[in-house]
Each structure stands twice: as structure tokens, then as C-alpha cells.
What does this fold into?
Amino acid sequence: MTRRRQAFPALLERLRPECEAIVARYEQKHSALLPIMHVFQQHEGFVSPEAIGAVAKMLELTPAVVESTVSFYTLFFRKPVGKYVVQVCRGLACTINGAEDVMRMFREKIGVGHLETTADGLISYEEVECLAACDRATCGQVNLEYVYDLDEKQIDALLAAIRAGTYAAAPMAQTEKPERTWSVSQGASVANGGKSPGARGVQSPDNAGGIGDRSGVIMLDRIVDLGPSFYGATHERAVRESRDVVELVEEENAHANR
Ligand code: FES
It folds into this structure.
């Protein structure tokens, strides 16, 4: 058992009053889920299986509900990560403004790829979906703090500050040494840091699927059995369906102009 696991019961008791104060702010207990998960992540540096179990009990939810909520957001890390987590947006506005180049520069300058951590455990790198700062594309986050209008000069300055220990955002807690990749195992049980059955087959630890996920799987395919014609890569379906919509609109316009 790791030292972190051994220390978890004491951490839980230490954080319990803070968690109870958060729960008291809401009409329904489950509304406290996200802020409480942030508290555990702040102290452990990631959302551990022990934290998922403890918070589920505290909020009277199943571990699967907690896990599925946490895995939806790129704000939570399901496995130990570096002291600095660099996330770069690969959404539409950022892509139009050069996100591909920004991502390439980060990968080359950090020396790791998507969902990887440097050997010294200093920096983890991830490419994420729209961060809701499209007006400042290309953008990203470092330890969940925004960085805007990214270009090579800014990337160099940012990485130099991280390496020198002078970066503006505080380092993440690191209670366990991160592995090279922090993608979540498909096969392991949730209790052992794996994904719940509904999220298996999706590559990113934080992505529930969809157009941005390279596996091209959407959760609906896994939940509702719509038959073989609905299965397949999401982007193919998006292309097919948008073409259907265009045809429909053209038909309606033609009809209206008659
Ligand atoms: S597309 Fe990058 S922030 Fe929206």
C-alpha cells in the first residue's frame, strides 16, 4: 500500500469539517460534489479512488455517479499528474487560430505527448476541448489557470518559469509519483483507478467521448442500443447528419420559392 493510501483515512477526517461546510451551502447534498472533489484534488494532487469512494458515501451517491461526473471534466485528474498540468485547447476557435502549431510546439518543447508526464514528474500535458475562452484563442490552462493568446514567445516564457520554479500559479500537490502516461486503464475496476463500464473504449481519462475524442465514440452509443446503423465513428455521423440538415433546408427553401 502506498504512503498516500495509508494517509488517506487521516486526510479524510481532516477534510471532513470543510466538506460538511460545503454540503451545508446546498439544498441537495449531491450539489456539493464538484466543490468537494476540488478539495480532495487540492490535497492529493488528483482524484484518487479512495476520494471517489469517500465522497460517494458522504453524499449518498454511488461511486459510479461520482466517477462519471469527475471523468466528464478536464478540471479533474483521475491519476497522479505532474506538479504543473499544461492543457491546450483544441476546440474550433483555437484550431482556426493555430492550435495545431501551439500543440506541436508544446509537445516538442516539453518532450512529451498528449496525456503524458515528464520523467521528473514536473509537467503533464493534455489537449482538451473548448475551454470557453474562445475570444482569446489560442488558449490553454496551467494548473487550471487560464493562459491566453498563446504564441511561441509566450510558450517559451511559460515553460522557462515553470522550470525555474517561478511560475505564477502554485504547483499541484504531488502525493504519488506520476507514471509516464496518465490515461486511465480500460480494464481495471473503478476502485482500482479504472473507468466505469460505460466509459470504456474512450481514450482520454477525462473525456466522455464525442467529436473531439479521437476514439470517435459517444456515450449514447454505449447507453442506448439503437441498432447497428447508429454505431460507428461520431465524426462520420456528424458529417452524415449535417448533410441531411443541409439537404432538408435546401428542399424547404426550394419549396418556399416556388
Ligand atoms: S475553442 Fe478554444 S477556448 Fe473555445
Observations:
- The pocket of FE2/S2 (inorganic) cluster is lined by residues 89, 91-94, 130-134, 137, 139 (CB under 6 Å).
- The two ends are 75 Å apart (CA to CA).
